[in-house]
């Protein structure tokens, strides 16, 4: 029986791998160490290539127990971890990295069932360890994102481990199925399961800006924007991108107008820059917020994130017609 | 003849019915016009045109050039201007990787053994946007009853032209003037001129410069009437005897005449800067005239600090003795030599305190004004910049005049860069390089060399012809070099790319030219039996906050006569004024800020000036070091 699966169009470029299909076009860069373009229905979702996230903005309790000081190298890793290698697999089979002259043998009419692009990052820590982010794309444009952190003895505890995607313009709202309110591993019992719509990209107005907006145990999140940076696209109709759990494993996320580093720098909410982008961070591991006291007590043992053990998570970026 | 879309796919079709390139001299009907510059033979077509945009060739309004076509749905657009800055088409900045990277798979026609010519690659390109331009004009009185041509100073990147529904011609080469004879199709009263501009053609492979990728009619358009006797082309050779005392003026006049030339005369006068006549000659005005070895005693030499210009005037008179055409030309006498492997100007070692200069205005992109150019000259003069490389294409005519007048040494570069066909992922990988040695890509690049030469050959400011930028080296680059050698023994040739393919080093470039060579590597070259004088065609990459350690380069000037300076990369940041969507205030945006992918983001910000022409702090350092060698 002939396969009815939609084929993925593959563009074997000189510095990138392009994948396209109905209503989507993705560009994976070999030089910039990540997914450079994620376009659905002609709308760009990425401002810069997604990178592994290791930092969260210091909470008051983190300050009290000096966690940020002992784990400070993860702030550097969050900002500066380089991509060390890229690998490509087509229909599950690894291929020689299709850069020139290897890609001369392809044509303008190449297709595949699935393509996986795997980026390996070295953490900017001492000692260093490796993180891989593998994107598997199928003909519907669905992207399974599998992230792996390799445990390394001697590294201080992780504030968080995730993948940060930055969209070019600020979202108008997001909707998710998960727990109500702002939740953390050690503060999620009060979260009521349900589907929640959040208007704007609210930053919880803690006196000193800090980690906020986490949503644990999420099944899916759909982000809505109305604007792009494309000078030739005056359209203001809302458009969406959905991230959902892979299999039966929920995920954590935050959707804010700021990166962890931007939050870290502010001592008052008014010091934060004007909101202009959407920072969606998908987390596989999140440190608790603690609360025994704010002048020294650590987060309870169960809510630490060890950097000495492996961490894995997979999420799906839904294709355009999902 | 009918226009064919397949020309977009064929590197062997790049000019159809275009008039041959010729010198950029201005011509006037009378002495009074020549003096005032108010030219009754010229009619500008700049301004508002009707316009329709199409996302692909297949979506374009076919037949829009016909007088009876319904254009009621057309918008308007300003000429000159970029289509993208008028709100049609996405702004896009990319450096080496071609703009279709990750979206279309393309290899240049006839590379990698291709025999098909890749039909449809651009004529059916899903990324090939189209601009349909149309306007009417009625000939001004001074143009009526003459041969009338139309000049397009710059159209990116392929254009078809119609007049009153008749196909006139086709042109590529975005940065070079294209000229067509409209006379056969002109009518009394209103005329309808139509231009169809394609963003991509095979020329795209040759125009892979590190810049925003625009399209449209981005330089001026004008009609020009030719008098009955007309100077079609002029070659001025203002040489100097070896003792530097006497000018040796040689002229070649190619005349075109619609009437019997019996009794017609060409009156040639050379005056000095004070207006004093130095010599005058009158000869019969017909055909191809040569005036050789006219001596100019005690000649004033043209150089950076003394850009002395003589005024040559050519008057064409008909049999009745009536002046029908007046051509004023600025002439500078100077002597460029390569002696003992050192480049000399007027017998003196040449030191290039240079910059690479893209044409840029943060409001209008590569549509720049005379005021922009004058501001640039002022910056040059204030900061001891004595040389400019027209990276990586010919500039507007006025810039060459300004360099003549202000003593700025020019490296006049062809519109050629094929970086993306040979350097991939940081490695030299020329398997699909063009133009290479492919016969199908030879004529198109030779045409670019010819156009550059023929247009600008009379400018004293030009000391060097540059074959192009970062296009590797093969037989076709060697043929370009040979073209210049065959046509011009008063200047030197330059090309850096031969250092990537040393097989051609005896056939390409009079100088050893490198980009971003560290000072130690240059020293190493100079200490090991160098065969050619050394220049940096690009150095001191002034991206963001940069330009440290410049003395390590300038110190070499003191030590090695064969080290002759170079051109800083580069003169001005390329960024665009945009209204910020959050604050409503004007902000400067760069690559990637328009959702354009693949982009090279901030890599376009390498200037000594910010994009709004305010100097960066580093300019005082340039001023200091260039000032040390400004004599």
TrEMBL record, chain A:
InterPro entries: B-gal_small/dom_5 (IPR004199), Bact_Beta-galactosidase (IPR050347), Gal_mutarotase_sf_dom (IPR011013), GH-type_carb-bd (IPR014718). It comes from Levilactobacillus spicheri. Its EC number is 3.2.1.23. It is an enzyme of class 3 (hydrolase). This is beta-galactosidase. Keywords: Glycosidase, Hydrolase. The keyword Membrane does not apply. Residues 18-318 form the Beta galactosidase small chain/ domain. It catalyses: Hydrolysis of terminal non-reducing beta-D-galactose residues in beta-D-galactosides.
From TrEMBL, chain B:
Residues 229-334 form the Glycoside hydrolase family 2 immunoglobulin-like beta-sandwich domain. This is beta-galactosidase. Its EC number is 3.2.1.23. It comes from the Bacteria. PANTHER family: BETA-GALACTOSIDASE. Residues 100-227 form the Glycosyl hydrolases family 2 sugar binding domain. Residues 336-628 form the Glycoside hydrolase family 2 catalytic domain. It catalyses: Hydrolysis of terminal non-reducing beta-D-galactose residues in beta-D-galactosides. Belongs to the glycosyl hydrolase 2 family. Keywords: Glycosidase, Hydrolase. The keyword Hydrolase applies. Pfam families: Glyco_hydro_2, Glyco_hydro_2_C, Glyco_hydro_2_N. PROSITE patterns: GLYCOSYL_HYDROL_F2_1, GLYCOSYL_HYDROL_F2_2. It comes from Levilactobacillus spicheri.
């Amino acid at each position: 029986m002939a396969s009815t699966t939609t084929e993925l169009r593959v563009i074997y470029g000189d510095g990138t791998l392009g994948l396209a299909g109905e209503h989507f076009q993705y560009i994976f860069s070999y030089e910039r160490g990540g997914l450079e373009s994620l376009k659905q229905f002609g709308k760009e979702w990425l401002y810069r290539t997604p990178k592994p996230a290791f930092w969260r903005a210091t909470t008051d309790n983190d300050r009290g127990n000096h966690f940020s000081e002992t784990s400070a190298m993860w702030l550097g890793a969050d900002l500066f971890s380089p991509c060390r290698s890229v690998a490509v697999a087509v229909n599950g089979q690894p291929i020689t990295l299709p850069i020139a002259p290897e890609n001369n043998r392809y044509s303008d009419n190449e297709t595949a069932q699935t393509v996986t692009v795997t980026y390996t990052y070295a953490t900017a820590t001492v000692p260093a360890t490796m993180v891989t982010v593998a994107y598997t794309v199928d003909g519907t444009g669905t992207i399974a994102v599998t992230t792996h952190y390799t445990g390394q003895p001697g590294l201080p505890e992780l504030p968080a481990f995730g993948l940060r995607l930055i969209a070019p313009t600020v979202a108008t709202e997001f909707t998710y199925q998960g727990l109500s309110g702002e939740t953390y591993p050690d503060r999620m019992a009060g979260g009521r399961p349900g589907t929640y719509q959040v208007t704007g990209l609210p930053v919880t107005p803690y006196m000193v800006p800090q980690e906020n907006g986490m949503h644990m145990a999420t099944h899916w999140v759909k982000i809505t924007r109305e604007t792009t940076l494309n000078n030739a696209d005056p359209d203001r109709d809302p458009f969406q991108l959905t991230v959902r759990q892979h299999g039966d494993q929920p995920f954590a996320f935050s959707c804010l107008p700021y990166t962890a580093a931007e939050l870290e720098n502010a001592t008052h909410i008014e010091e934060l820059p004007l909101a202009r982008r959407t920072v969606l961070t998908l987390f596989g591991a999140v440190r608790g917020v603690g609360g025994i006291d704010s002048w020294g007590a650590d987060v309870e043992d169960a809510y630490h994130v060890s950097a000495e053990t492996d961490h894995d998570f997979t999420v799906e970026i839904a294709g355009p017609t999902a | 003849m009918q226009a064919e879309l397949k020309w977009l796919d064929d590197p062997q079709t790049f000019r159809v019915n275009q008039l041959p390139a010729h010198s950029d001299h201005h011509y006037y009907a009378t002495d009074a016009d020549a003096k005032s510059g108010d030219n009754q033979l010229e009619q500008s077509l700049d301004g508002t045109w009707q316009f329709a945009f199409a996302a692909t060739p297949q979506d374009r309004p076919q037949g829009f050039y016909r007088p009876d076509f319904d254009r009621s749905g057309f918008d308007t657009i300003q000429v000159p201007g970029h289509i993208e800055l008028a709100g049609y088409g996405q702004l896009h900045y990319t450096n080496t990787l071609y703009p279709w990277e990750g979206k279309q798979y393309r290899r240049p026609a006839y590379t990698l053994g291709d025999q098909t010519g890749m039909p449809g690659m651009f004529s059916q390109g899903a990324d090939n946007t189209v601009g349909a331009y149309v306007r009417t004009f009625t000939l001004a009185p001074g143009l009526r009853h003459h041969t009338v041509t139309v000049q397009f100073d710059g159209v990116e990147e392929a254009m078809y032209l119609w007049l009153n529904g008749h196909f006139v011609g086709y042109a590529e080469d975005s940065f070079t003037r294209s000229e067509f004879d409209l006379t056969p199709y002109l009518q009394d009263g209103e005329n309808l001129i139509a231009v169809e501009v394609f963003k991509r053609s095979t020329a795209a492979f040759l125009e892979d410069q590190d810049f925003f990728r625009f399209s449209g009619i981005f330089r001026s358009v004008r009609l020009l009437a030719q008098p009955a006797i007309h100077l079609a082309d002029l070659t001025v050779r203002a040489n100097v005897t070896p003792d530097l005392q006497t000018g040796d003026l040689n002229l070649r006049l190619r005349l075109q005449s619609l009437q019997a030339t019996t009794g017609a005369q060409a009156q040639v006068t050379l005056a000095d800067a004070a207006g004093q006549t130095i010599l005058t000659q009158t000869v019969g005005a017909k055909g191809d005239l040569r005036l050789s070895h006219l001596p100019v005693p005690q000649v004033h030499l043209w150089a950076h600090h003394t850009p002395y210009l003589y005024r040559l005037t050519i008057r064409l008179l008909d049999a009745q003795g009536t002046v029908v055409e007046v051509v004023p030309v600025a002439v500078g006498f100077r002597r460029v030599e390569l002696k003992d492997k050192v480049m000399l100007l007027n017998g003196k070692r040449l030191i290039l305190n240079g910059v690479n200069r893209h044409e840029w205005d943060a409001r209008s992109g590569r549509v720049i004004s005379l005021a922009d150019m004058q501001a640039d000259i002022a910056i040059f003069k204030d900061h001891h910049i004595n040389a400019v490389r027209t990276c990586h294409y010919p500039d507007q005519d006025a810039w060459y005049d300004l360099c003549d007048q202000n003593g700025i040494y020019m490296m006049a570069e062809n519109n050629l860069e094929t970086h993306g066909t040979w350097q991939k992922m940081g490695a030299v990988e020329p398997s699909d390089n063009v133009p290479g040695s492919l016969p199908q890509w030879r004529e198109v690049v030779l045409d670019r060399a010819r156009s550059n030469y023929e247009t600008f050959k009379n400018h004293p400011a030009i000391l060097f012809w540059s074959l192009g930028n970062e296009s590797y080296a093969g037989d076709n680059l060697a043929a370009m070099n040979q073209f210049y050698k065959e046509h011009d023994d008063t200047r030197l040739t330059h090309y850096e790319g031969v250092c990537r393919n040393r097989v051609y080093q005896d056939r390409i470039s009079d100088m050893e030219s490198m980009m971003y060579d560290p000072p130690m590597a240059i020293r190493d070259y100079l200490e090991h039996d160098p065969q050619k004088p050394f220049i940096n065609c690009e150095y001191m990459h002034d991206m963001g906050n940069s330009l440290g350690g410049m003395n390590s380069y300038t110190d070499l000037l003191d030590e090695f006569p064969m080290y002759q300076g170079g051109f800083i990369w580069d003169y001005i940041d390329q960024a665009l004024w945009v209204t910020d969507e959050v604050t409503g205030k004007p902000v400067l945006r760069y690559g990637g800020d328009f959702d354009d992918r693949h982009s090279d983001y901030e890599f376009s910000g390498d200037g000594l000036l910010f994009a709004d022409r305010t100097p960066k702090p580093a300019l005082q350092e340039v001023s200091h070091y260039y000032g040390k060698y400004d004599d």
